[in-house]
Design brief:
By secondary structure, this protein is α+β, with helices and mostly antiparallel strands. It has five helices and three strands. α1 packs across α5.
């Protein structure tokens, strides 16, 4: 459980940055080189590479180097941790809304049955 929480912390930290989310969005269409990933961003390459390093450290992406070209691709397993966390919160709130809805229906029925 603690390990899962630490993984979720890493994933949500990585996803908290717009640049990193855009990189992940790009990689969701398939592997890409650093040059291809950096092209849309107006920042120095070393700064951009720090974003890639963080994504790789959080294991949201993995890379391989062939010659002088490094290519990144998505590692989907870690996204499951974030998805599970969000799914648990969604189920909790849906359950609360269902109970609230039942309570309101009960009150309405009581009001309608009074003369």
């Amino acid at each position: 459980m603690v390990q899962s929480a630490a993984i979720a912390d890493d994933v949500f930290h990585a996803l908290s940055n717009a640049t990193r989310r855009k990189v992940l969005q790009h990689l969701s269409t398939g592997p890409a080189t650093v040059t291809e990933l950096a092209a849309p961003f107006d920042m120095a390459l070393p700064s951009f590479v720090q974003h890639l390093a963080l994504l790789e450290r959080c294991r949201l992406v993995k890379s391989k180097k062939e010659g002088r070209v490094r290519t990144y691709e998505i590692e989907p397993a870690r996204f499951k941790v974030a998805e599970d966390w969000l799914s648990e919160r969604r189920q909790l709130w849906e359950s609360r809304f269902d109970r609230f809805d039942d309570y309101v229906k009960h009150l309405k029925k009581q009001r309608e049955s009074k003369p």
